[in-house]
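Standup notes, structure subgroup. Blocker cleared on the FE2/S2 (inorganic) cluster input:
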Amino acid sequence: MKVKDILEKACHENILSKDEIKLLLMAEDKDKELLFETADRVRKEYVGDEVFLRGLIEFSSYCKNDCFYCGLRKSNRHAQRYRMQEDEIVEVAKRAYQMGYRTVVLQSGEDMYYTKDMLCSIIRKIKSSVDVAITLSIGERSYDEYKAFKDAGADRFLMRFETSNEKLYRKYHPGMSFENRIECLKWIKNLGYELGTGFLIGLPGQSIDDLAQDILFVKELDADMIGIGPFIPHPQTPLKDAEEGSVDLTLKSIAILRLLIPDSNIPATTALGTLDPLGRQKGLMCGANIVMPNVNDLEYKLKYELYPGKICINEDATKCRGCIESIIISLGRKVGHGKGQSRHYKRAA
Ligand code: 5AD
Ligand code: FES
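Run returned:
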């Protein structure tokens, strides 16, 4: 089958076989250009020219897990740990609102210091002070907790499954279970959150077959938001000598997922911008429609080191927003107004 025919099928049926996805992941030259152009056209048709900005608040760098790739892993004795207190988090959310953000993403390592009641209180305080959507990105919790956060006012939840190859998942996530993670994602969906998930590109040992499977798995979970980023080796982790993930495969995965879930929200991730100075621009040109700038103070930005070399780490939050806005304008796009709920979620509701 030719790439042109596969793209046509993807546009009409929103589904592809694993082999078809693999062909797209391996496309070169004209075929690759055609994939990117098609994804850009579908993005425009389904979600328009608006690029929505999400204010990312990384509120704790503590983590009880030990993921092999992540700088926040508990065994990293060099990691600088911090926890923001309740009122501080609420203040940063208000500041994000004043800067123009209408979604804040509360992200942290898996840090059980924050109890169900504390998180509910933070969510309620933010919701009662400013009109923003709240996205949580805090990892695995119990059904009861997810339900309480939703009842307190949380709107969305982000949690990548990281890899759908269970053998690799086990290898890189000691003490964790793939099954439990998927169960959490299903609970989150059933509780009525807008669901965001995704995976890492280029974990050592991951094949093209695995990536095609990852793409199909995002489709199967019927995600409203899709986060995909290249793996970047962190010097204080067991994967320090591994090769970094491919920007090209990341862009192709974004493009393919835009065709399979055309009305989803897809960010051009910070990791993509870290490996390629034009990574976020490229992402926005092949299917992405979201950017998530960090709104924390410099002090915290420096300490939240998932991987080295993160962009924007020395910029203050206002400058970052200005910078991102000019990138959006330079691409002929518009800065989104409003909360930018996933159209996929709206349609399903
Ligand atoms: N390189 C790229 N992405 C990483 N993440 C964690 N560590 C790394 C790394 N070394 C990603 C994971 C996680 C998200 C918050 O950050 O996919 O879900
Ligand atoms: Fe942060 Fe450019 S987006 S400085």
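Discussed briefly. Residues 3-348 form a domain with the TIM Barrel fold (CATH 3.20.20.70).
Next: hand off to the docking folks.
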